[in-house]
Amino acid sequence: MLRLVLKNTLFGSALLLATPLIVATWLEGALVRSKSERIYGACKEILAPVPSLLGRYLRATYYWACCTKVSPDVCLLLGSMIAHRRTVIGSRVLIGSYCIIGHAEIGDDVLISSRVSIVSGRYQHGRPEERAAAEPISAVYETIRVGRNSWIGEGAVILANVGENCTIAAGAVLYRDAPDDATFLGNPARRVDLVTRAEPASQPLG
Asked: Are strands 190-192 and 183-185 parallel, antiparallel or unpaired?
């Protein structure tokens, strides 16, 4: 009970401190029809390097107030930021240090290690055929979905959807969708079977 009261007190205090940034972001969203995120972008960069417990609560309150739907108990460690407001993050999600979260929907109980990038799809800087033909670039932003109870290892780059109860190994580059209950590793990431098999007992030396 005391822990809950303390958390709510810290959240409320951080909300008061973040209010100027929140109001500025709301005004941008209400007044700028082009859906500009310039003020939002500046605010996320201001909050990303704030250290310690204060930084965690400031980031949590800001994204809770300004994004589509972010749980108030999300934990974003030092240097991490949510790149776009149209983001959904469920409950009890931990995002490690120096992560970049693009257009994403992240389920409950997801653990994301440090320096992970969830990129807004594979074609946000245009398609290869457009560049090859020197045609105008048409940026395509996709929403990447990460299912509940999944774990993403350090330094992974996520360009496709991740199912529920998945493990994406450290350093993996996920280019194709990962189904539920799967483990992927490597660059490009491939599905692997990590079930441990019993080894035969060694024969005693005689």
From this structure: antiparallel
| pLDDT tens digits, one per residue of 95-108 | 999 999 999 999 99
Q: Show me where the domains of the chain are located.
A: 2-192
pTM of the full structure: 0.84
What CATH number was assigned to the domain covering residues 2-192? 2.160.10.10
DSSP state of 49: T
Contact 75, 93 (CB under 8 A): yes
The CA distances from residue 120 to 136, 159, 193, 204, in Å, are: 20, 7, 28, 57
Task: Pick the closest to residue 112 from 50, 166, 53, 187 (CA basis).
Answer: 166
> Locate tokens 């599905």: which residue?
191
Spatial distance between the Cα atoms of 190 and 140, rounded to a whole number of angstroms:
25
